[in-house]
Design goal:
With 114 residues, the protein is α+β, with helices and mostly antiparallel strands. It contains 5 helices and 3 strands; from the N terminus they run ααβααββα. The longest helix is centred in the C-terminal third of the chain and has 35 residues. It comes from Paractinoplanes rhizophilus.
């Protein structure tokens, strides 16, 4: 029996619901990177990074391979870039809306003081 699409989507978003995993995906945007480069940028224990990479790999979001003895990671599909870009756009719109609301609240507060 196959999993309903909405359930598969929910699992994808659960997988993405960790800051280290998102940071790894951001770092892999330009192209494959060795684990040592990821460790140099992400302040995390090697074992913790390994666990997070394993979660991403099992979900099929990243792939790993060896290159000259180094373990490399890469995004499994360019669609991951689209997902990260969509997240940035959504956050930008949400923050813009909150900024406008904050401005309205400030104006209302000033009027209340008068």
């Amino acid at each position: 029996m196959s999993v309903p699409l909405y359930q598969a989507k929910a699992e994808l978003f659960r997988t993405l619901g960790h800051p280290v995993r998102i940071r790894v995906l951001e770092l892999l945007q330009p192209g494959p990177k060795p684990v040592r480069d990821l460790l140099a940028v992400i302040d995390i224990e090697p074992s913790s990074l390994s666990q997070q990479l394993a979660v991403l790999r099992r979900a099929g979001i990243v792939v790993s391979f060896r290159d000259s003895g180094a373990v490399m990671y890469a995004l499994s599909t360019p669609a991951v870039l689209d997902l990260l870009a969509a997240g940035r756009r959504i956050l930008g719109e949400m923050l813009t809306d909150r900024g406008e609301l904050l401005a309205e609240l400030k104006v209302g507060a000033e009027e209340d003081r008068r």
